[in-house]
Design a protein that fits this description.
Length: 196
């Protein structure tokens, strides 16, 4: 007959003390991540508002650029492209998108070393696993002002999302995940208001 396969042993997870440094990194990261999410959603709203403000003029310029580019021997439309970019930059400054973007960049500079340290550290407890799941959640957020309402996981038939959801449930992150998804859904459907 066929040989029986040995039973798979579940690795023993050490207590949180084994991951004290990783857990501390995770706590620092979680505070910054919360702030970053607030700022990123504000930036997305303001960025869309700036694009909306210049859209009609931009659409006309894009049509003119396309007409110029349709003539192979014609000049390249640098002036039209520059005018389009300048109008958008001016709208971003006027609306406050640039200031929010600068805050977001500064916060990202503080977050990035924590993300790398958490990724590099081995996890031997649920607390350590939670820190790693927080990084995965951070990296799954849409990076664009225009987004759909879902977190962005690897395109692997849902395997990454399924594993993430299981880890979130084990580590108590499910309420945070649900809150972020609700905020993304509201941001994707909210009218673009220029609000502080």
């Amino acid at each position: 007959g066929a040989a029986a396969l040995p039973a798979l042993a579940m690795p023993a997870l050490a207590g949180d003390h084994a991951d004290a440094e990783l857990i501390a990194l995770g706590r620092r990261f979680e505070r910054l991540f919360s702030q970053y999410t607030d700022i990123a959603l504000k930036w997305a709203r303001l960025n869309r508002a700036a694009h909306d403000e210049v859209r009609e003029l931009s659409d006309a310029r894009q049509a003119a650029i396309a007409r110029v580019l349709a003539v192979p021997s014609g000049p390249y439309p640098f002036d039209l492209i520059r005018a389009n970019d300048d109008a958008l930059q001016a709208a971003c400054r006027r609306i406050g998108c640039d200031a929010v973007s600068a805050r977001m960049s500064k916060l990202f500079e503080d977050i990035e070393p924590l993300v790398e340290a958490i990724k590099d550290a081995p996890a031997a407890s649920l607390g350590g696993l939670r820190a790693k799941a927080l990084v995965m959640l951070f990296e799954a957020q849409p990076g664009m002002a225009v987004h759909d309402v879902t977190l962005e996981f690897a395109d692997d038939g849902g395997a990454s999302r399924s594993l993430f959801d299981a880890v979130a449930a084990l580590t108590g992150l499910t309420p945070m995940v649900q809150e972020i998804e609700a905020r993304l859904a509201a941001d994707a459907t909210a009218p673009d208001e220029i609000a502080a």
